[in-house]
Design brief:
Elements lengths: L1 E2 L1 E4 L15 H14 L3 E5 L5 H13 L4 E7 L2 H11 L5 E8 L2 H8 L3 H16 L5 E6 L6 H14 L3 E6 L6 H14 L7 E6 L6 H10 L4 E4 L13 H10 L1 H4 L1 E2 L7 H12 L20 H9 L27 H11 L5 H17 L5 H12 L6 E9 L7 E8 L2 E8 L3 H13 L4 E9 L8 E9 L2 E9 L2 H21 L11
Parallel strand pairs: 1-10, 2-3, 2-9, 3-4, 4-5, 5-6, 6-7, 7-8, 8-9
Antiparallel strand pairs: 11-12, 12-13, 14-15, 15-16
Bound molecules: 3-methyl-2-oxobutanoic acid and zinc ion.
The site of zinc ion (ZN) has 7 residues, from loops.
Length: about 525
Amino acid sequence: MDRIIVFDTTLRDGEQSPGASMNAAEKLRLAIKLETLGVDAIEAGFPAASPGDFDAVKMVAGKIRNAQVTALARASKEDIDSAWGAIKEAAHPRIHTFIATSDIHLEHKLKMNRDEVIKAAIEAVSYAKSFTDNVEFSAEDGSRSDRDFLCRMFEAAIEAGATTVNLPDTVGYAMPDEFGQLVAYVREHTPNINKAVLSVHCHNDLGLATANTLSGLKAGARQVEVTINGIGERAGNTSLEEVVMGLYTRRDHLGLESSIDTREIHPASRLVSMVTGIVVQPNKAVVGANAFAHEAGIHQDGVLKNKMTYEIMEPETVGLTSNRLVLGKHSGRHAFKQRLTELGYELEENDLNRVFGKFKELADKRKEILDEDIEVLIAEEILRVPDTFKLDYLNVVSGTVAVPTATVKLIIDGQVAQNAGFGIGPIDATFNTIAKMTKTRSKLLRFSINAISGGTDAQGEVTVRLQENGLIALGKGADPDIFTASAKAYINGLNRLEYLKKNPSLAPEERSL
Ligand code: KIV
Ligand code: ZN
């Protein structure tokens, strides 16, 4: 079987999802997870975009030893200098430079003619090559470019030293048969194509990213550019889990394999969702909550008789454990650590102690602690920053006749403060009171609440996204009481905003902490 190269761009194109930007610590945590997953290359960011992203890419480059670490750069010396500055300490660095090749981009965006664009690409690749042998060139909007010009461009880029040439369907416009034909055309009409790896990078505007990527592979591409959960610009990128499981499940048909450890897919998916605050739709292929749920009676009957009647993949293959060991208040640290390992988390001693302490507190309130509960506890700790504000007490009154009222006691910079306020509903009352006490000027961009597991005793998991003066911060909170969970999430978001204000280098415009 031919082995394909998995180039993960969750930390770069994925981060371009509205509101998904990540700080350096979050990128590092995800990069470590991606390495465990077995991706060949991690695109860690776009260092020229902001000082914060430069630092984040540098941190990833300093830590990751097996996977290649890639940084994106426009076709300019400044961008390439910045990319190289960020990844030069990596064990296997790669510079990824790009320029658009479609007429519409040339005319309206770049205001350059074809010869000028080829010249800029050659200069960029040659310059990148002066730093490292490992250079990727992308023809942005390649799928809408003139085919022969695209081939000329790839030929020139390879001649200048590109070791990978990438064909993006930047706006998700291509149809699978058409995209496959384009890949085949490029292979046939680019004379030196065998000196480079041909890559595909698809967007999901028409829901065809995975189909287009697989079609590209069938036509001879050997690198796929993907993101976990398919996050990315607009409707997202090709999702890693779909392509990898497509290759694995239909290896009989495709005859291709990847280096991905499929059992790490679910833990990686959950971590991306926790860090970005972007929930996975329940019917999402491979990683959605319903991906392995059989609802119809006929289906359940079939599965009980023989799983293969309605299951084309085993849940265990993608890291879903079937015999969920339920933990409770008598579970010790060892059992807890063991469960974390099974879920794919290796926490440092301090983090482990903190999460274990939280687990014990929760176990006093609830009889059974499920995997989802544990993951939320981890998320709360991952997103932890030094507390400016701490919730000490919350009392909420609401009902069919009561005016929703919240009484809140906070510890603000070590001082106790108490206040009460009203709202349209109990959460509004809670937030109004906290806002008054913390004097925040932030705007609430998003509020979402989710029951972590079934049952009315489930923990409520609340995510908020706050914005103040161009800074964006995510806040998370979980508790069996949804008002407390909401207050915790809001306060967590406010603490993260405070942290950003005090650490401006971590806080590039419009990036979250
Ligand atoms: O979609 C795209 O064209 C890109 C390039 C920078 C590779 O993300
Ligand atoms: Zn893209």
